Amino acid sequence: MADLTKVRVWADALIRLHLNDTWSFAFDNAKTRAGLTNYTKRTITVSRYLASKWDDDDIHQTLLHEVAHAMVGPKAGHGPEWRRVARDIGYIGGRTHRGEIASETAKWIGVCPRWHEHFRFRKPTRIASCMHCAPGSRGFNPRYVIRWRARR
């Protein structure tokens, strides 16, 4: 688990090293994504929930990923320019966020007929089916309907 005080120190140091003082760092309340580069506000944010769950190396890679975005601008995406800059500043590649979410904060918990758990942060408004039970099917499968309940 990363110490959030250390994460802030690392982020501020990376911003000073690779960007300028018009950029800043903050934690956000995201529960399904690790980091974000906001070009309008010139802010790099990291999920406080995921940062508190992950180890130092994962968070450091997330910070490098976002700093690289800030360095190349919004039009670069994850293209060749971004990849070159990210590699040059120490990003080792790959996706830093592999689907782990802050599920313990989800307000809605769903279970399919085969007992796979699903989490939602907003009340589900549509009937959904479990994609684990019907891999490869790209749509609704009525045999695997998820039953939702509010977390107490």
Automatic annotation (TrEMBL):
- Source superkingdom: Bacteria
Domain (SprT-like) ranges: 2-140
> What InterPro entries does its record include?
SprT-like_domain (IPR006640)
| Pfam families the UniProt entry points to | SprT-like
Example GO BP: response to stress
The protein's name in its UniProt record: SprT-like domain-containing protein
Which species?
Candidatus Agrococcus pullicola
- Lineage summary: Bacteria, Bacillati, Actinomycetota, Actinomycetes, Micrococcales
